[in-house]
């Protein structure tokens, strides 16, 4: 893959705006610095290459009103943002894995349109911004990923390690890239090549149409870089290897699997036309008929390219380039990212007028202790200075005229505290199977919550009732003592336990905190809500309680602790809208890791 890194840098330098950019997943190491230096060398000397820090404001990114110049000149003066400044070049997005969805949408809009719409602070301009992005992803785990909306708009997904590019990397020169940029617009894309790339994308489970479009553009760039006037099969294979292979979500079916499929019913061939209908029209000269037959014979002697064979070879090239373990990591990453918005180490976002993290400003007067935003107030007043000063008597006009309608106050957003409610099945079936492992996993999770200063609560159910062993607290010692004395045995009042967990989570939510319910059970309910035994009524009551918990909108995780995954536990998780994790033959440590991954704690 290291040799492909240099090829990706060269292709991006040939067509940065057409290819969108590169999602570069690598730690801050010498290999990444070498790749960025190579890209800088291959880009034309006049092409800008600017770095965008994390949490860059809209004014610095998109442009806006230059406050100092506006106040000095007495008229609106526009400030050009980083996107417009990088027109024709490349932007480096630092720490892109932490980018917010709003920032990713702004970059995606610019990549789609190639321009910046500056409509703010009394300005209305359209600035060209045909740029390529290099998203520097430094995520330490698989759940830290670049936003999907932005990664989809980048042609290449590249991973680098700390070993460098290697001695076998192709060597490209800036002169070759410049020549390829001039030749790119004259290279056509054959329809058979487009069909082969689309077929390979479908076989690899790639749903986005952008992937095939990027692959076609990469094939044209590869042909231009090789000095060819047409796109050849080797260029199509390069595009499939670099663009489609990293996006694969499944492996194509094997020939044995295709042969095992039931054959389709054969339809009767169409009736053959009469022989006299196949003959040439009677008014056709005999010499013309002989020439036409001769041309057809010559064309039959030349082997015509088979689109099916081309598609198969392109697919083989893409399949050979799929990194080892990619499909497994994709499944793990999808499981880790499939969580509710309120799950994780931080609670739900809450608006607050006085405390929290600043999230911009809004128009309004500073009342009830709210803080005035001086910069936004001056920004709102600046475009009107010449008009306002002209209406005042000469010599009495202040330096800056600020009126009531210019006032802006700072908006804040505060993260609520998270309280994790552990609901432990201590019935006879769980005690027989894995109650000790569940206790150990809960203790590890309690320690993890203690490090983050989150509150925890423990609820156990057995016999005919559910008991709150530990109300919401931050005391790790109390939590461990409550688990140590938890006995096992008896029936499984699952519906009662779900009702108790919902009631406790509702109390937590009323305090302004975010509850997360983690239910560890095998799902085999045998005690109904009224205390009567019976698996049928108990199962129906459990599903009804799960539906009520789902209607309450509480984030829930169900961990199936039975030796084998149970269909009844899966149905219960689906009824309560919970994430389902089956851990057959896993110890406490593995159970802890799985719960942390799904709950967003990895």
Verbal overview:
- The chain is flat.
- With 602 residues, the chain is α/β, with parallel strands linked by helices.
- The strands form 5 sheets. It has a 6-stranded mixed β-sheet with strand order 15-14-13-16-17-18, sandwiched between helices.
- Mean pLDDT is 76; it is low at 264-286, 294-304 and 328-348.
- Helix 10 runs parallel beside helix 12, helix 10 packs across helix 16 (307-320) and helix 21 (435-451) packs antiparallel against helix 22 (476-484).
- The chain contains 26 helices and 18 strands.
- It has 4 domains: 2-56 and 83-178, Rossmann fold (3-Layer(aba) Sandwich); 187-252 and 305-342, Helicase, Ruva Protein, domain 3 (Orthogonal Bundle); 349-391 and 400-415, no CATH class; 418-598, Rossmann fold (3-Layer(aba) Sandwich), CATH 3.40.50.
Could you give a quick summary of the protein structure above?
It contains 26 helices and 18 strands. By secondary structure, the protein is an alpha/beta fold.
Q: CATH homologous superfamily of the largest domain - what is it?
A: von Willebrand factor, type A domain
- Average pLDDT for all residues: 76
Count helical runs.
26
Strand element count: 18
Topology, please?
Layout lengths: L1 H13 L1 H4 L1 E5 L4 H13 L6 E4 L5 H5 E3 L1 H7 L4 E3 L1 H4 L4 E4 L7 H13 L1 E6 L2 E6 L3 E6 L10 H4 L4 E4 L14 H10 L7 H13 L5 H17 L7 H12 L10 H6 L14 H4 L7 H16 L5 H14 L5 H12 L11 E4 L4 E7 L10 H8 L3 H6 L17 E8 L2 E8 L2 H6 L1 H17 L3 E8 L2 E9 L2 H9 L9 H17 L3 E8 L13 H17 L3 E6 L6 H10 L2 E4 L5 H11 L4
Parallel strand pairs: 1-8, 1-9, 2-5, 5-8, 13-14, 13-16, 16-17, 17-18
Antiparallel strand pairs: 3-4, 6-7, 10-12, 11-12, 14-15
Helix pairs in contact: 1-3, 1-9, 9-11, 10-11, 10-12, 10-16, 11-12, 12-16, 21-22, 21-26, 23-24, 24-25
